[in-house]
UniProtKB/TrEMBL annotation:
InterPro entries: Ald_DH/histidinol_DH (IPR016161), Ald_DH_C (IPR016163), Ald_DH_CS_CYS (IPR016160), Ald_DH_CS_GLU (IPR029510), Ald_DH_N (IPR016162), Aldehyde_DH_dom (IPR015590). Gene3D superfamilies: Aldehyde Dehydrogenase, Chain A, domain 1, Aldehyde Dehydrogenase, Chain A, domain 2. Its EC number is 1.2.1.79. Residues 15-478 form the Aldehyde dehydrogenase domain. The lineage of its organism: Bacteria, Bacillati, Actinomycetota, Actinomycetes, Mycobacteriales. The active site is at E250. This is Putative succinate-semialdehyde dehydrogenase [NADP(+)] 2. It holds the Pfam family Aldedh. Residues 446-468 are annotated as: Disordered.
């Protein structure tokens, strides 16, 4: 990283300083180090961005989809070629390891490429008509001006998987990223605009919740795609419903990994560790609950605790580091409070749980990777902490294990470890989640398949793959008849 980056807004094709309060993004490893700084957008900036998106709308919708896609492909090449530099910036700003930061930038490029080729895919459907001389076509149109609100934890991949389908399907966008990660938002926006997006097609406003509220409540917004906390998602969804605006909200998870007796134990240990501690547990798909069947529980929990205690926690830009800090001091305090209440509710800390009072980790927003065993329900079993904390329970058998997975208001993802195809199929039938992994960790999402949760993890159409078209277009059913055939 070289120097402090200036935070600016992109409105109607012009990069401008925001007129609002100051905003700073810090390095969570060394919070006295400023990564980017500038000023938030004002409500007038939000108005300007929405107006610009409204004006650009017709021209962009009338641009052929292959041409819109070509711009995404060009942006993908820029993102890919900057993977090392931007990956390091991502790591510095967000705190995930360098390998994960670089991997995420490459993933954003892959997502842009996937949607860049959308024009080559099916554009609608044709049905037979019960009447002679008629066909029924189902065609697709953009919904209009989309508000995109994204979280801190995937500063470039989640924005890419919302903005790319929005744009390729002919919508214009006003994007508000989490104010903790403005740098990567500026990088992605530059890649897209430098590829040749017309002014106003993509606008970037940076700020905290007042900017988000102004955006989602703006009369010029036709649809809202949101990923973030359950509380904010529900507030946005109810405000949008009152205005009749469609919402796609991807919210909380309390994702379980189930390790059954017959699992490949070594592989399950590796995968549970990745699910729980990659990105410092800050993924809505992270593994935050573990269910182990009784017969293997002692052995599994002992080995898991030993591996967790041995994780290299530290500066995520160091090659050897396996886990970096969480995003803010507030997040750090909230996670430790959650561990504290688990202990007071009878939880047994198998490893971790302690703050770093001394040494190089004491100043950063670090949380020790933690495994807490429960023998009965506790808040940590149901409430998302969004950190490197795994709550474990034992189950007598497969049925009880799957019942414990479903013991959650959320249903985003789950991982089941077994070598028995009958048990795997039972999981497919019984585990109520949007994304099920058999013998792999609970996180991960390929761009060409649907992503999103069951139960209270999500609202509205799923993201990615062909599912994204459901949200970013509406259909027109066309009853198409000619006149009488001419003689
Ligand atoms: C992943 O599992 O790689 O906010 C993606 C999140 C999810 C994305 C998860 N929306 O963590």
């Amino acid at each position: 990283m070289t120097g402090v980056v200036e935070i600016r807004q992109l409105i109607d094709g012009h990069w401008r300083d925001g007129g609002g309060d100051s905003v700073t993004s810090l390095n969570p490893t060394r919070p006295n180090e400023v990564v980017a700084e500038g000023n938030c957008a004002t409500l007038a900036d939000v108005d300007g961005a929405v107006a610009a998106a409204g004006e650009a709308r017709a021209g962009w919708a009338n641009t052929p989809i292959h041409q819109r896609g070509a711009l995404l492909l060009e942006a993908a090449a820029v993102v890919e070629s900057n993977a090392l530099a931007w990956g390091l910036e991502l790591t510095t700003e967000e705190g995930k390891t360098k390998a994960e930061g670089i991997g995420e930038v490459r993933r954003a490029a892959q997502i842009l490429r996937y949607y860049g080729n959308e024009g080559d895919r099916q554009a609608g459907e044709i049905f037979a008509s019960p009447r002679a001389g008629e066909q029924i076509l189902v065609t697709r149109k953009p919904v209009g001006v989309v508000a995109v609100i994204t979280p801190f934890n995937f500063p470039i991949a989640i924005p890419a998987w919302k903005i790319a389908p929005a744009l390729v399907h002919g919508n214009t966008v006003v994007w508000k990223p989490a104010s903790t990660v403005p740098l990567l938002a500026i990088r992605l926006t530059e890649a897209l605009t430098n590829a040749g997006l017309p002014a106003g097609v993509l606008n970037l406003v940076i700020g905290d919740s007042p900017v988000g509220e102004a955006l989602v409540n703006h009369a010029g917004i036709d649809a809202i795609s949101f990923t973030g906390s359950t509380g904010v998602g529900r507030r946005i969804a109810s405000a949008a419903a009152a205005r009749g605006v469609p919402v796609q909200a991807e919210m909380g998870g309390k994702n379980a990994a189930v390790v059954l007796d017959d699992a490949d134990i070594d592989m399950a240990l590796d995968q549970v560790m990745l699910g729980a501690f990659r990105s410092t547990g800050q993924k809505c798909t992270a593994t935050s609950r573990l269910i182990v069947t009784e017969r293997i529980a002692d052995r599994f929990l002992a080995e898991l605790s030993a591996r967790t205690a041995a994780l290299a926690v530290g500066d995520p830009t160091d090659e050897a580091t396996q886990m970096g800090p969480v995003i803010t001091g507030m997040a750090q305090r909230g996670i430790y409070a959650g561990i504290g209440s688990a202990i007071s509710q009878g939880g047994d800390v198998l490893t971790g749980g302690h703050p770093y009072f001394k040494g190089p980790l004491a100043d950063g927003f670090f949380v020790a990777p933690t495994v807490v065993e429960l023998t009965a329900h506790a808040d940590i079993w149901s409430q998302e902490l969004f950190g490197p904390v795994l709550a474990a329970r034992r189950a007598a058998d497969t049925d009880e294990a799957f019942a414990l997975v479903n013991d959650s208001e959320f249903g985003l993802s789950a991982a089941v470890f077994t070598q028995d195809v009958t048990r795997a199929l039972q999981a497919v039938d019984q585990v109520d989640v949007g994304v099920l992994h058999v013998n792999s960790e609970s996180a991960g999402a390929d761009p060409h398949v649907p992503f999103g949760g069951a139960k209270k993890s999500g609202l509205g159409p799923k993201e990615q793959g062909s599912a994204s078209r459901e949200f970013y277009t509406h259909t027109t059913t066309v009853y198409l008849r000619g006149g009488k055939p001419q003689p």
